[in-house]
Sequence to fold (505 residues):
Amino acid sequence: MRFNADRMETATATKLMSAENALETSHLSVRFGDNRVFTDLSFSVAKGSSLGIIGPNGAGKTVLLRALIGSLPFKGTVRWSAGVRIGYVPQKLDLERDIPITGVDFLRARTAVAHKSITDISSVEALVGIPRQVAQQTIGTMSGGQFQRLLIAFALVGDPSVLLLDEPTAGVDEPGQERLNELVRRLQKDRGLTVLFISHDLSVVYRFADNVLCLSRTQTCFGRPRQILTPDLLREIYGGEVSYHVHEH
Amino acid sequence: MNTETLLLSIAMAIAAGLVGAFAVMRRMSLAADPLSHVALPGIGIALALHIAPVFGAVAMLVLGALIVWGVEEKSRATTESVIGVVFSAALAIGSIMTTGENLIEALFGGAGTISWPEKVFGLATASAIVAFIVIHRNSLIVMMVSPDVARTAGINVRRLDLLYLEAFALTIALGLRYLGVLLMGALIIIPPTTAKRLAYDLASMLWISVVLSVISTTLGTGIAVRLHREAGPVIVLVATALFLLGLLPRRRWKHE
Fold:
């Protein structure tokens, strides 16, 4: 899996990047016409750590992930560490679910593009917990949770070192959400993955994120969950009362 | 109809079945029709210059695909309105430039003899289109799932998209001889739409689409010859009849 976006730099192109970081951005701005989505965003993500991205709807969370993979034009710099391989799990697909494509077809296509052997499909299926008979169904017949697992499996085929997840548990029932969160956490631990994830569930961010990046129309903030997820700051970001449960383990 | 013409129409039908399968899955069905209209002014120019009409059509179709590709980066609504306006205008201009029998033939396809350059072009282009789809089917699937994911997988999304659109445009060019400007879009779309209903995975989708496309073309041409009618409309009616038959079974053809 190569990474060949035009405006990207990898650490080979610049000597300034810290060896411990998987990603560094500085003064990152995205605008659509006259509409500024966010400006002057600078943060870094250490290798093997996880970054939770929070903020109200329309604050540019998905836009940020898409800018990071080079799908959107931006100003500023995005530096990925040398040799980074990105697995991206998009939130919504612009795809009709009634097409006669099975989970196996999807994974096989991804495997071929990544020049992997077909046997990788079964290992990835096992990893994310998709039984073979489910993978052989067409995608339209899968449940929300099964389809999300398939998308994560899809991202894992390229053997990524960084996983970008855009609300991976959206549209999944609560037990399914818990299993998906555990899955991502397990993958991160076992494979040393760097994870960037968007979530509306602040308790999940509190539990799983090493750092939090918050985006809103008026301000951005970056720091440890304990520093960021305070009632005062959340009120400023979301513009109202926000409550969440902290599960201390 | 001689063997060469039959072979040529089968090659065209195979290309149409494969290209159409991806068009239907990518929800491009509605673009097929207006894009084929852009061929008409090309045919008019070619007739005026006394060269084979198909080459004028090819030039305009390649240009038309470039226009679609150029505006595609904007929103879906923009793309659709640009296609609607530009290609309807092309149909109008083409209708003024092409007259009489030539116009009818260009619109609905005609029987006339096929020159050697056209035969060579037809077979070579059909083979190239089939090879393109077969070789790039996996990248096309990944791009269809999500262009963003495709980018992270190292696929040059914009280039692949352009190549697909040009394959699509050339497929239309191949079929103009048999189905004409107005009906070629239908052959690209109807068999894959039937296949989408019957198929249970990607491979079956592609196979059923190709088989139905070939049956529609050959059977349609055969019936047209017996009834002394133009082939194009009969081909589309056969494809439509197969689509209606495909509506009958409630279960997909899955071995269980």
